[in-house]
Design brief:
By secondary structure, this protein is of the alpha/beta class. The chain folds into two domains: 205 residues, Isopropylmalate Dehydrogenase; 139 residues, 3-Layer(aba) Sandwich (Isopropylmalate Dehydrogenase). 39% of the residues lie in helices and 18% in strands. The protein contains twelve helices and twelve strands. The protein is globular. It starts with a strand and ends in an 11-residue tail after the last helix.
């Protein structure tokens, strides 16, 4: 197979982790006889500095024409003026809208060897394997009207949480479809006791659930879900929720894996290039030091192979190499390890070329 992949390394540690993800991706392609052509563009703060905008039309068009997009991270203190009219995050939101990727998949898998690095007791982490599906292009982050005004001498701000029924239905249908390939359990997270948008969310969840009777559906308020993620995380299989709730809950869930640097994500739509990125930020405090954890970006490349290119075996190859490397003791500083970013990438590549055991798989 030959595929065209756009790289958006972005700001902070983004270029460092994307570099390692590409190394691993190309190594997997070499082993399996695929050719991955990569083309890099700017996004975020570096694009503001160069072009005055966080996402140029040329970059967006390249992404739309690609087979998949691999992103690093955006933002940093030099662009962190809350009153600025142009901000790095606008590039990311514009990219999601421009690609039409409405569902963000964030798998949370706990490697047994990393359980001691989680603040939770190890017995609570046994069997934790969660797929969080976050609606990505609606809700508070995109609702209108929004803004600030001066009213009788006071500053008043407005954000709007808005959803169309079809926006909820399509992400809910995806959640049930993916649950059927896992443990047939879906947890829909909302705030239906307070929010009108959540009442529609729950109504549609019930309707889609009735059409998928083989999948067990439960409803959970977001505050209860936040508690259950740290008191009983193994109870979850597929967890589906709206944009802001998903943003917050997945960062909370990152502690289960021992470090936010371990978690990948895939943003998908209908017949459009997928967008793949680690869930961590740009980490400007460690940028340029060569100590960032590239595993989240590398596992995002594995998701790229699975969901955009249909290369399941190659995805498993990378996921298995990551697990082997971590279990062998290769870790970066966030996990009390001594590996540099590039050394971690090399360790995973080295384990990539060890033949898979007959029964060795990763969920």
């Amino acid at each position: 197979m030959e595929a065209n992949i756009v790289l958006l390394p972005g700001d902070g540690i983004g270029p460092e982790v994307v570099e390692q993800a590409v190394r691993v991706l190309q190594a997997a392609g070499q082993r399996r006889g695929h050719q991955f052509n990569t083309h890099a563009y700017l996004i975020g703060g570096c694009s503001i500095d160069r072009y005055g905008t966080p996402l140029t039309e040329a970059a967006l068009q390249a992404c739309q024409a690609a087979d998949a997009v691999l992103l690093g991270a955006v933002g940093g203190p030099q662009w962190d003026d809350p009153l600025a009219s142009v901000r790095p995050e606008q590039g990311l939101l514009g990219l999601r809208k421009g690609l039409g990727v409405y569902a963000n998949l964030r798998p949370v898998h706990v490697y047994p060897s990393l359980a001691p690095f989680s603040p939770l007791k190890e017995e609570k982490l046994d069997g934790v394997d969660i797929l969080v599906i976050r609606e990505l292009t609606g809700g508070l982050y995109f609702g209108q009207p929004r803004g600030r005004e001066i009213v009788e001498g006071h500053t008043r701000v407005v954000d709007t949480l808005a959803y169309y029924d079809y926006e909820i239905r399509r992400v809910m249908e995806l959640a049930f479809r993916l649950a059927k390939g896992r443990r047939n359990k879906a947890t829909s997270v909302d705030k239906a006791n307070v929010l009108e948008s959540s009442r529609l969310w729950r109504q549609i969840a019930i309707d889609v659930g009735s059409q998928n009777p083989t999948v067990s559906l439960e409803h959970m308020l977001v505050d209860a879900a936040a508690m259950r993620l740290v008191t009983d995380p193994a109870r979850f299989d597929v967890l589906v929720t709206e944009n802001m709730f998903g943003d917050i809950l997945t960062d909370e869930a990152s502690v289960l894996a021992g470090s936010i640097g371990m978690l990948p994500s895939a943003s998908l739509g209908d017949g459009v290039p997928g967008l793949y990125e680690p869930i961590h930020g740009s980490a400007p405090d460690i940028a340029g030091k060569g100590i960032a954890n590239p595993v989240g970006a590398i596992l995002s490349a594995a998701l790229l192979l699975r969901y955009s290119l249909g290369l399941e075996q190659e995805a498993v190859l990378i996921e298995t190499a990551v697990e082997r490397a971590v279990s062998a003791g290769y870790r970066t500083a966030d996990l009390n390890g001594t590996c540099t970013t590039s050394q971690m990438g090399k360790a995973i590549i080295d384990h990539l070329f060890i033949p898979l055991d007959r029964e060795e798989t990763r969920s």
